[in-house]
Design goal:
Layout (H helix, E strand, L loop, with lengths): L1 H46 L21 H5 L33 H32 L5 E7 L9 E5 L6 H10 L4 E5 L3 E5 L15 E2 L2 E5 L5 E6 L1 H4 L9 E7 L4 H4 L2 E4 L5 H10 L4 E5 L2 E5 L10 E2 L10 H6 L2 E6 L21 E5 L5 H12 L4 E2 L4 H5 L17 E3 L4 H5 L3 E6 L2 H14 L7 H5 L2 H23 L3 E5 H6 L1 H11 L6 H9 L20 H20 L13
Parallel strand pairs: 14-16, 14-17, 15-16, 17-18
Antiparallel strand pairs: 1-7, 2-4, 3-4, 3-7, 5-6, 8-12, 8-13, 9-11, 10-11, 10-13
Helix pairs in contact: 3-4, 14-18
């Protein structure tokens, strides 16, 4: 009897272990199956809408959340208002102007658009580096290697920070970039950073201390930790295409004491603009000022702000002895050298107590606003997304986690109650929807700096894009007006026209104190690295009358919503078109 009981007990123990093993195996198999299905759904979502999503997507708009054009074209068939706006029944949204067919953007649509941003960013990286690879073979190591030098970020000699590239930096790329900007020396550090200047660093280091391999060029050295590999690129400057030529800024009344106003000067018989510009460029000053045979170099300051120009006729005889003797007016030119008084930036030393968003619809100038804010405050801005092209242009906050609170504000295009209420306050940047839609369409098909082709504009993707994104422009503003806790509304057009006053408002909103000279430096560097270049189409009107009617309804809705919250309405040039 005891023996039989022992056998039964032994069998039960084995059965218990077997059941435990089978249960674990079942759970593991279920988990693997769930992960596989989740991956499949994500892949399907990145290619287009899944079968259970009633959001038709054209082939060219794969991964973009677009609305059914039939719903948009039929005002009486759609829902009543925008994203999360069904509860917002304010008198300001008068039904005469409020499009009842403004389609609600639900969470699925926001996710699809978010996926499109991430996919677009990854697709753009090869486009941004295509010309870069070609440059490697055309100008490789043409500069003269000078040596390895110490690099102190607080007292940097090569102050013209050009760009960063953690993946594709090469010696030749840095050399060409500095030569195009009329600098004499190019310095590389950390294998990925490029700096330019006209003066050699004071402290030389041992050659072996420059030991960081270039990220985009195996076998080549690009400085080291706090060490610069310095090249002389003066021989490249003659054949280099200048990023920007000497620019005429205008005729201005000369300060009472030019010697006190400008730190460098030159008296030269038969002085020319080229002579003065070259002299000031070597001295690393962004302004070249000519009065008769006198050349002065310096910066825009409170004493010479370049805000009050004079009639150009008053400077027409500047090189005559009589005009020089009077000395009342001077000619001002912008040299290729960057104004470096406001280029140094850093992360916040302590975590910010106030979590601030820099919110806008795509194509509304968010990157430009970040450039202005960073240079005005001296602190990096963050981003809800990661854009490698922006990081390579010096926006180091792109790689910082957007909730780290180490940046002065965080870029976002998101809307909806949950996304908005994460922030304590926000700068809401609004731009004319006609301009925003065209800018975003250009960015989608040609990157940050290019223009879409005629084929893109004439394809079926453009009307689908307008039908989808026009409603997003309106819903984005309305959502932030409804859910935003503390807002500063800034119109892109006002910022462009009155840069310093509007930038002062933004900086004060961020609780940062800046000097007037720093703001003038920002104004002098107002365009940054993201001004579109290339062949822009003249007299080009991509909007049909049907598109205009659609957009104008959204404009009137947003205008009334702004006034209903006691904000300034949209600029007059918005409506109607």
């Amino acid at each position: 009897m005891a023996k039989a009981f022992f056998r039964l007990q032994k069998f039960l123990r084995r059965t218990q272990f077997l059941l435990f093993f089978l249960t674990a195996a079942y759970l593991m198999a279920g988990s693997l199956l769930l992960l596989q299905r989740t991956r499949l759904v994500i892949q399907q979502g990145s290619r287009g809408t899944s079968a259970n999503q009633a959001l038709p997507v054209t082939d060219g708009m794969a991964g973009v959340g677009v609305l059914d054009p039939r719903t948009l074209q039929n005002p009486r068939a759609g829902p009543r208002l925008l994203v999360g706006m069904d509860a917002m029944q304010e008198p300001a949204l008068d039904q005469q102007h409020s499009p009842r067919w403004l389609v609600s953007r639900n969470s699925e649509l926001r996710q699809l658009r978010r996926r499109w941003f991430h996919r677009f960013i990854s697709d753009q990286e090869p486009m941004q580096t295509a010309g870069f690879k070609a440059m490697k073979h055309t100008a490789e190591h043409k500069g003269t290697y000078v040596g390895c030098f110490s690099d102190d970020s607080r007292e940097r000699t090569l102050k013209g920070a050009v760009f960063y590239d953690l993946r594709k930096m090469t010696v030749s790329h840095c050399q060409e970039a500095c030569a195009e900007r009329a600098y004499t020396y190019a310095g590389l550090a950390y294998g990925a950073e490029c700096y330019c200047g006209n003066k050699l660093p004071a402290t030389a280091s041992k050659p072996e201390e420059c030991n960081s391999e270039c990220k985009g060029e195996k076998g080549s050295i690009c400085g080291g930790v706090n060490r610069l590999s310095v090249y002389r690129v003066e021989e490249l400057r003659a054949g280099a295409r200048r990023r920007r030529n000497v620019i005429y800024r205008g005729c201005f009344r000369a300060p009472e004491n030019l010697t006190d106003t400008f730190p460098a000067s030159l008296i030269q018989p038969n002085l020319t603009v080229e002579m003065c510009s070259e002299f000031c460029s070597k001295k690393e000053f962004p302004l070249a000022v000519i009065r008769g045979q006198e050349c002065y170099c310096g910066y825009p300051t409170g004493r010479f702000s370049l805000h009050d120009g004079a009639d150009g006729l008053l400077c027409s005889g500047m090189h005559n002895a009589s005009s020089a003797a009077e000395g009342k007016y001077c000619l001002v030119y912008q040299t290729p050298v960057q104004d470096t008084r406001c280029t140094d930036r850093k992360f916040l030393a302590t975590k910010s107590k106030v979590f601030v968003a820099l919110s806008s619809f795509p194509g509304a100038g968010n990157t430009w606003a970040r450039h202005l804010i960073e240079h005005a405050t001296g602190y990096y801005t963050g981003s809800y997304y990661f854009d490698g092209a922006l990081y390579n242009k010096g926006f180091k906050g792109e790689k910082d986690h957007w909730r780290s609170r180490r940046t002065i504000c965080v870029k976002t295009h998101e809307s909806g109650k949950t996304e908005i209420e994460m922030f304590d306050s926000a700068i809401l940047l609004i731009r004319n929807p006609y301009k925003s839609l065209m800018a975003e369409f250009n960015r989608k098909y040609a990157g940050h700096l290019g223009y879409a082709t005629d084929h893109n504009w004439k394809s079926k993707e453009w009307p689908d894009f307008v039908n989808s994104y026009a409603s997003w422009w309106a819903s984005h503003v309305l959502d932030w007006l409804k859910y935003g806790k503390r807002l500063l509304v800034v119109h892109y057009e006002d910022l462009k026209q009155s840069l310093i006053p509007k930038l002062k408002e933004m900086v004060e909103f961020l609780n940062v104190t800046v000097t007037e000279d720093r703001l003038l430096c920002v104004e002098n560097n107002r365009d940054g690295n993201f001004k579109r270049s290339g062949a822009k189409q003249k007299d080009f009107e991509p909007f049909t009358q049907e598109m205009k009617d659609l957009i104008n309804r959204y404009i009137l809705t947003v205008d009334e919503a702004l006034r209903g919250r006691n904000f300034t309405g949209l600029p007059r040039q918005y409506v109607p078109r």
